[in-house]
Design goal:
about 130 residues, mainly alpha, single chain
Length: about 130
């Protein structure tokens, strides 16, 4: 019989970091492009400040714990999350910035996007060279 001190659960120190699992490609495959954007917009609405229509520090701070279950985020964590996607540097995330950020955080979707853009550029150059 195991003693109370010899738990079979690994201690906090022994645990390996959890590997990031990117579910965005699966969602995109099941929902399609329009469906994925619709779901991202719903996520934006859950996190935004209802009066301002953008995700602010305060709205993300309060919703991170209630909606996302991330109650242990520090103020610095929240600032970093806002800054990561705040392209116009107004201190908040509008809907477009949020959607772009979500795509940027998905390594597989970013790679797929690069491939599509590369194909389009190659086709465009190919078309141009055939016209001349």
């Amino acid at each position: 019989m195991a003693s109370p001190k010899s738990s079979t659960r690994p201690s906090q120190q022994d645990q390996e970091p959890t590997k990031f699992q990117d579910f965005f490609p699966t969602m995109a495959g099941k929902l399609g492009g329009d469906g994925l954007i619709e779901e991202l917009c719903k996520g934006f609405e859950l996190l935004m400040d209802k009066d301002k229509g953008v995700i602010t520090f305060d709205s993300l701070r309060s919703n991170a714990s209630t909606v996302l279950g991330l109650g242990d985020l520090t103020d610095e964590d929240v600032r970093c999350m806002i800054n990561e996607g705040d392209f116009d540097r107004d201190g908040a995330l509008n809907q477009m910035e949020f959607c772009v950020l979500m795509f940027r955080l998905s390594p597989e979707l970013m790679e797929a996007s690069r491939c599509v853009v590369t194909e389009v550029i190659e086709e465009e150059f190919s078309d141009c060279s055939h016209r001349q």
